[in-house]
Design goal:
- The complex is a heterodimer.
- Helices cover 16% and strands 40% of the residues of chain A.
- Chain A is α+β, with helices and mostly antiparallel strands.
- A nine-stranded mixed sheet of chain A has the order 13-15-11-10-25-23-18-21-20, with no helix packed on it. In chain A, strands 4-3-7-6-5 form a five-stranded antiparallel sheet.
- Chain A is globular.
- By secondary structure, chain B is of the alpha+beta class.
- A five-stranded antiparallel sheet of chain B has the order 2-3-4-8-6, with no helix packed on it. A four-stranded antiparallel sheet of chain B has the order 7-5-9-10, covered by helices on one side. A two-stranded antiparallel sheet of chain B has the order 1-11.
- At the A-B interface, strand 4, strand 6, helix 2, helix 3 and helix 4 of A face helix 1, helix 4, helix 6, helix 9 and helix 11 of B.
Chain lengths: 467, 998
């Protein structure tokens, strides 16, 4: 395997530096030579693809877990990560892909933890990112939360899981149903029993799913009450401009299922208006052809909770915006105060109540404090992060909730030129805003009669009002 | 949940507590290494004792603590001897944890690690496939060079294992061994070659991974498996899909000619991107140009399309890059929707996807234009996402949407995130240069920003304005004057440098201001940034040349300052300028041209996207993200001018079936002979292939079951033509199907021979029928045909008619007349549609047990209702016959399989004297016919039963079904499953058998 070692010359780009006349060419001496990691180690073949090592790092920068699938990589490789973290203004801005002299670091940020994986060779970055998220999902699934404490408490299970999920850096078993057969999740009962009998929480049989064509389902599922529940959850992503008109809006939906059915049920779910769904992504269990030809979701479900589909409603349909916001935020020139007045009301809500309303505002840095009076709910202002959170609750059309008052600014500082955007959260029960309706659910392959249920919820997704 | 963890903690609480205690003491008392060392020693002593105790619970506790230490990155290597002893522990959890430990430390303690090897070697022979697999996993993960031969052997054995799960692990082990000892490459390639032929969806992803790792340049290994991989792709697990798609992308670029038309500009007719009816367009395309796509090329593009709907972002991206790199440009449009969908995902996925969209949007704007609004920036997006979105918006800007975009940009400029505001200004500049209609609007907008309160915004505006002015050297004196004033207030070096350069360039347009600026700058020269100093020197030089009267002294002064500057760049520049502009005796010819040199017309800067040069990297790769070639990056080759021979992808047997001539027959005889002789030689050699034989049967059953119950992939791929109604692809598919059906016949017959062979030698229990090679090629052809079984059905009828004619001609060569088989029946009809894998395992057992000495026949659990066509009413002049296997002991003889034949009269006349004649049976085969039927009324139907002794083979029984007036040649070919006898067997016996067969 002879690799071509490439040296890439790249002129460091400082803005506007490039074209200041002929003579600037001389100052290009600052050209930096960047070379691919492992350039010299490339002569040896078989670097091993995919994920080499994984480090879990908490917010304060402690590496609290490491796992290596090949030769051990020193913790010091994380220094490059810390360096990048320092450079970034906040955690959100740490670049997911970092190049170091001998390795590449691909990281994700989840639940206040960094999952940093070490890579040595070319690999699709999304492959690693998606996998790391799958790992985090699995922890969430096993321990109820994906936190440092939970991981530290269950370090042995975490290790066993990581061992099963990756072999030589290549994903082996990532389906939660298979993993749960291999390694049982911790429960109070089991750990008590284990400590008495000395039995373990490691399964000794090969998960049947591993071998079948339906790897997501385990065999021999039995329930006394057979139930199938579907949650249709739709989120409205929108940008509303100053004048209240919609700049951009679309509906993103998911159908989450909780299936507790014995045996090998074969379900088909049909919609009243399947044409609404513009772009759909499926759980692997769904038969694609059936959808293509009949617009019916036909599948043998995994056991338990899972996301059946996620979809986007075609953008041709006008999206109903269920709330409106009246706002007037102003800062006076040359004085250390401003006014803040926000009223929120229902609009196109199809006769349903809008509840769980929260307004979050990232105020400009010069804001010192806010003295506001809400007609409903309560508000908090964090003077450090400058985040105003107004927990409104339910909107009653008779008395529209509003939040009014004064804003104290740092004296002497220039007034902020932009008004902050309002981020709004809300929830409408029993309504799918797109109008999507489940028609029926049929079950084949099993004889019993399951209990079926569908629930609709509409929520605000990334719902932003510019002021 | 905290209660859970609490409970869990309690279980191993003691251990962790002490460990934490240790940690505390070690950090508290940094008094000396000695204290630390002794406490460590003590703790490890205690762990050693626990490991040596008799109680599993103590051992388990100890192992858990050790794993905790490993997880924290602490050294636990000195416990190696104590831990390695437990490698043979009965307790599976202890065992697993020991494995974890071994893999971590074996490299450091090679000698001791060897102690554990025998345990793994034993485990490799374990009847439990889980244990076999994990033993192989650990054995191959121990990086001890001494055991390379053992690993090689283990991999070879595992690659031929019965269980696809073990074979999958073998594929993983290949990579590990390769990285341990690259010398083994050739041998490993052999194993890869073999595993590539594996048709299990479990193995496919892993073996392609190994291929990419070990021998990515051996593209020839892929040819024969190309179609199979394309067809399996939908069912492979998601990670495998990514790897296979990337590999196939590279493959396609070397094997097919470019589907991109020459006149395909960057923006080929934009409308066509959004035509929902791709196919129609394709047809028109076809008419226009002589290019026709290789059916295999089309197959790949078609079979990957459903994966755009995957929930896994990596799969979607992989398909997107495949479409981008190998599909006709008019079809790539479908990926944009899916990519935009990924933008809803977490920030890391967004980051990568946006980068790729940025690269794509430079080349083909049209693709993403309808989704323009999806790239609007939210104030809550992280900065890196914002700038990428901005980049895409800029790429998508055109005359039609620029006004909307500029309005949007106005909001961004005011953003609190100043870095982002600055990026927006750059963007506005780029839009202004790209779209001439808005240049003036943008310029005036930017000038307004010069009075912004934020310095970063102002500085950025200055820089951008400078670039814009450079492009239109028209009269912008006012703006320059305004900017000259800014020099007093602005401090950002880049901006100051830009202003100075601008004044220098236009010094003749602002003759009054320029010398004054120079004067001010001379005053502050020493305190300026290097960047600014260079521009002061430039300004001085330019003024010296144009207006030496006023500025001669000032320039000399500045040059003197520059001469003693700390920065060598500046000293250099000073020397250079002095020589060039100040005339002295030494100055050469150049100084004559000084004015031309300094005041030449400079080309306007091209404001380009930073993603401009990324397109030479394959999309979706790490190299693309980094914009630098990553180690191990495989270059995507350019399309070949002329396509390499497409027939290399045909599986051998197809070739033979295709050229069906007498010569072909002769050719066919050869392998058959060889086949027999070979099997004699190997009569009592290794036992693995009888396994694989039986396995291929049961596996095909599995696939069959899938086809029946869930209409999964095999049907998916074949029903495609209907849904897509592609004219060309339809016919092409049919062609492929036809070819396949022939293969099928061939494959089966080969199988049949094997079966036959088996029966002959079945008295010796480890009978051998064929080499492994042979059987694997069989199974391959079978999988090919199965995957398109549905399409085969479509063409079946036609085929049959044609064949029947030939049938009559072929009188005595039936044994070799391979083409005569009717592909009527699907290979194996298995019980219950949704059969659980455990049942399959049972069946495997049954298959094996035929050679066992204890046989107790049981009643079949399930009898399929499936009937097969014996004679179609169209070809039978109104007489239709169907047959089925009732799975009952045959009353005519215990070696016979009972067959039920249902005869239907679809004519409006009586059919008389239906009977069987002219049996053409292979040697050894026997048949018990039914009694002639006197007459069959119109619309009447009658069921008769007969018995056929197939000699345990799948060879066809050919005979003639005759009525009073006509004779019809028909044949019955038994699926393997129907030849089996249901047997009851104790688990012990079964295990014994299984062990026996390895």
């Amino acid at each position: 395997m002879s690799e071509v070692v490439s040296f890439k010359l790249s002129v460091r780009q400082s803005t506007g530096h490039s074209n200041c006349g002929v003579l600037t060419a001389f100052s290009a001496a600052s050209a930096s030579v960047r070379r691919g990691p492992g350039a010299e180690s490339l002569t040896g073949p078989g670097l091993g693809k995919m994920i080499h090592s994984l480090f879990l790092i908490n917010c304060s920068g402690d590496i609290f877990l490491e796992k290596h699938w090949k030769s051990v990589v020193s913790q010091s490789v994380c220094d490059y990560f810390f360096e990048a973290q320092e450079k970034a203004a906040d955690v959100e801005n740490v670049p997911p892909v970092i190049s170091t002299p001998h390795h590449y670091l691909i990281s994700i940020y989840r639940d206040k933890l960094f999952f940093v994986s070490v890579i040595q060779t070319e690999v699709p970055p999304l492959f690693v990112i998606e996998f790391l998220h799958r790992v985090a999902d699995t922890f969430q699934d096993y321990f109820g939360e994906c936190s440092e404490a939970a991981i530290k408490d269950n370090v042995v299970i975490v290790y066993e899981l990581l061992e099963e999920m990756l072999d030589n850096g290549f994903p082996l078993a990532t389906e939660s149903n298979i993993l749960k057969e291999l390694i049982k999740p911790p429960t109070i009962l089991r750990s008590v029993v284990n400590s008495i009998t000395g039995s373990s929480n490691v399964g000794d049989t090969l998960p049947t799913g591993q071998l079948s064509n339906i790897p997501w389902r385990r065999a021999g599922v039995k329930y006394t009450n057979n139930e199938a529940y579907f949650d249709v959850v739709e989120e409205i992503d929108a940008i509303i401009d100053k004048s209240g008109s919609t700049v951009f809006a679309e509906i993103q939906g998911v159908i989450d299922a909780c299936i507790k059915l014995s045996g090998m049920p074969d379900l088909s779910l049909s919609f009243m208006n399947p044409r609404l769904l513009d772009d759909v992504s499926f759980h692997p269990c769904i038969r694609f052809k059936r959808w293509e030809s009949e617009r019916v979701l036909s599948f043998i479900p995994p056991d338990g909770n899972f996301r059946l589909i996620s979809y986007r409603v075609s953008s041709q349909n006008l999206v109903a915006i269920p709330v409106y916001v009246k706002h007037s935020i102003s800062f006076k020139e040359n004085s250390s105060c401003g006014r803040f007045d926000v009223t929120i009301g229902p609009k196109q809500n199809m006769g349903k109540t809008i509840e769980g309303v929260t307004v979050t505002v990232h105020m400009p840095k010069v804001v010192l404090n806010m003295n506001l009076t809400p007609t409903q709910g309560s508000y908090t202002f964090d003077p450090v992060t400058k985040v105003l959170t107004w927990d409104v609750g339910k909107i009653t059309p008779q008395k529209l909730p509003s939040l009014k008052g004064l804003v104290n600014l740092q004296s002497g500082a220039p007034k902020p030129e932009e008004n902050p955007s309002l981020n709004i959260q809300f929830k409408i029960q029993q309504l799918a805003i797109s109008g999507l309706k489940v028609n029926r659910l049929d079950m084949y392959g099993e004889k019993y009669k399951p209990f079926k249920g569908v629930k609709y919820v509409t929520k605000a997704g990334k719902f932003q009002v510019r002021t | 949940m905290s209660s859970n963890s609490f409970a869990y903690n309690e279980q191993s609480g003691g251990g962790e507590a002490t460990e934490l205690g240790q940690e505390a003491t070690s950090t508290i008392s940094p008094s000396g290494a000695f204290g630390l060392f002794s406490s460590d020693l003590k703790k490890n002593e205690d762990l050693k004792q626990m490991l040596e105790s008799n109680k599993d619970s103590a051992k388990l506790d100890a192992m858990k603590r050790i794993v905790g230490m490993i997880a924290k990155g602490k050294n636990a290597s000195e416990l190696f001897p104590a831990v390695v002893k437990n490698v043979a522990s009965k307790n599976i959890e202890i065992k697993k944890l020991v494995y974890v430990y071994l893999v971590r430390y074996a490299e450091e303690q090679q000698d001791l690690a060897l102690l554990s090897i025998s345990t793994f070697q034993r485990a490799l022979k374990d009847p439990n496939q889980l244990i076999r697999a994990s033993a192989l996993r650990v054995l191959s993960s121990i990086r001890v060079p001494i055991i390379v031969p053992i690993m090689m052997l283990a991999i070879k054995e595992a690659a031929a294992d019965l269980s696809p799960y073990v074979r999958k692990n073998a594929a993983h082990a290949i990579q590990k061994l390769y990285s341990l000892d690259p010398e083994q490459k050739e041998m490993l390639i052999e194993v890869i070659e073999k595993l590539l032929k594996d048709k299990s969806i479990l193995v496919a992803g892993s073996v392609v991974m190994a291929f990419e790792e070990v021998c990515p340049d051996r593209i020839d290994l892929i040819h024969k498996n190309y179609r199979k991989l394309c067809n399996l792709l939908v069912d492979v697990e998601e990670w495998g899909q990514v790897v296979i798609i990337h590999m196939l992308t590279r493959y396609a670029r070397t094997q097919f000619v470019s589907p991109w038309r020459e006149d395909d500009g960057l923006e080929d007719n934009e409308k066509s991107f959004y035509d929902s009816d791709d196919e129609q367009k394709e047809k028109t395309d076809k008419r226009k140009k002589p290019y026709t796509m290789d059916p295999d090329h089309r197959l790949l593009i078609r079979n990957t399309k459903p994966l755009l709907q995957s929930r896994n972002a990596a799969v979607v991206m992989a398909v997107a890059q495949l479409y981008w790199h190998i599909s006709p440009k008019s079809e790539a449009g479908i990926i944009s929707k899916s990519l935009v969908r990924l933008l809803r995902s977490n920030r890391e996925v967004q980051y990568i996807v946006l980068q790729n969209i940025a690269t794509m949007s430079i080349q083909r704007k049209g693709m993403f234009e309808p989704y323009l609004k999806s790239f609007y920036v939210r104030s809550t997006d992280p900065t890196m996402i914002k700038t990428l979105k901005l980049e895409i918006l800029t790429n998508l800007a055109n005359e039609a949407n620029i006004s909307t975009l500029l309005r949007e940009f106005q909001t961004y400029v005011k953003s609190q995130d100043k870095q982002f505001a600055a990026a927006t200004i750059q963007t506005i500049g780029r839009c202004a240069t790209n779209i001439s209609e808005v240049t003036d609007t943008c310029l005036s907008g930017l000038v307004c920003l010069l009075s912004n309160r934020d310095e970063i915004v102002v500085a950025e505006s200055v820089v951008v304005i400078k670039k814009l002015l450079q492009m239109q050297p028209a009269q912008h004196g006012e703006i320059i004057k305004h900017m000259a004033k800014l020099l007093d207030s602005i401090t950002v070096p880049v901006a100051r440098a830009s202003i100075l350069w601008l004044i220098g360039e236009n010094c003749e347009r602002v003759p009054k201001i320029a010398p004054d600026v120079l004067r001010k700058m001379a005053k502050s020269f020493t305190s300026e940034d290097d960047l600014v100093k260079l521009q002061i020197l430039n300004l001085g030089a330019k003024l010296y040349l144009t207006n030496s009267k006023q500025t001669k002294l000032l320039t000399q002064y500045i040059l003197n300052l520059g001469k003693y500057d700390q920065n060598y760049d500046i000293r250099d520049r000073t020397r250079f300028i002095r020589q060039l502009i100040v005339p002295n005796e030494k100055s050469g010819a150049l100084s004559k041209y000084a004015k031309k040199i300094f005041l030449a017309q400079k080309p306007a800067p091209l404001l380009e996207s930073p993603f401009k040069d990324r397109d030479h990297f394959q999309l979706g790769t790490l190299s693309h993200t980094l914009n630098a070639k990553a180690a191990g990056y495989l270059e995507l080759s350019n399309w070949p001018e002329v396509a390499p021979d497409p027939s290399v992808r045909n599986v051998e047997v197809i070739d033979l079936a295709k050229e069906w001539t007498p010569a072909g027959k002769a050719k066919n005889e050869n392998p058959t002979k060889k086949f027999y002789s070979e099997s004699e030689e190997e009569e009592d050699s290794s036992d693995s292939s009888s396994d694989s034989g039986s396995e291929s049967g049961s596996e095909s059953g599995e696939e069959d079951e899938e086809g029946d119950s869930s209409e999964d992939s095999s049907e998916d791929s074949s029903s495609e033509p209907e849904s897509e109604s592609g004219h060309q692809s339809d016919t092409e598919n049919r062609r492929a199907a036809k070819r396949n059906s022939k293969t099928k016949g061939k494959g089966d017959s080969k199988d049949g021979k094997k079966e036959n062979e088996k029966s002959k030698t079945s008295d010796s229990s480890n009978a051998e029928s064929s080499s492994v090679e042979e059987s694997s090629s069989d199974s391959e052809s079978e999988s090919e045909s199965e995957s398109e079984s549905e399409s085969r059905k479509v063409t079946k009828e036609k085929e049959k008619k044609a064949k029947q004619d030939r049938n009559r001609l072929a009188t005595d060569a039936s044994l070799l007349d391979l083409d005569d088989f009717n592909p009527v029946s699907t290979p194996v009809a298995l019980p219950t549609p949704a059969l659980s894998p455990s049942l399959i395992a049972d069946l495997e057992g049954l298959n094996l047990s035929t050679s066992s000495s204890v046989i107790s026949v049981s009643t079949p659990v399930f009898v399929p209702m499936k009937t097969h066509v014996l004679l179609h009413r169209m070809s039978g002049k109104g007489l239709a016959a169907h047959y089925s296997f009732p799975r009952q002991p045959c009353i005519f003889g215990d070696k016979m399989v009972s067959v039920q034949i249902t005869l239907n009269n679809t004519t409006d006349k009586k059919i008389e004297n239906i009977h069987i004649r002219e049996k053409k049976l292979p040697i050894g085969m026997q048949m018990h016919v039914f009694n002639p039927i006197e007459s069959l009324e119109p619309e009447g139907s009658i069921t008769v039963s007969m018995g056929i002794d197939f000699c345990d083979s799948t060879q066809t029984a050919s005979f003639q079904l005759c009525t009073k007036d006509d004779c019809f040649s028909v044949n019955i070919q038994p699926p393997v499953g129907e030849l089996l006898l249901p047997v009851a067997m104790s688990e012990k016996d079964f295990k014994k058998e299984q062990e026996f067969h390895g």
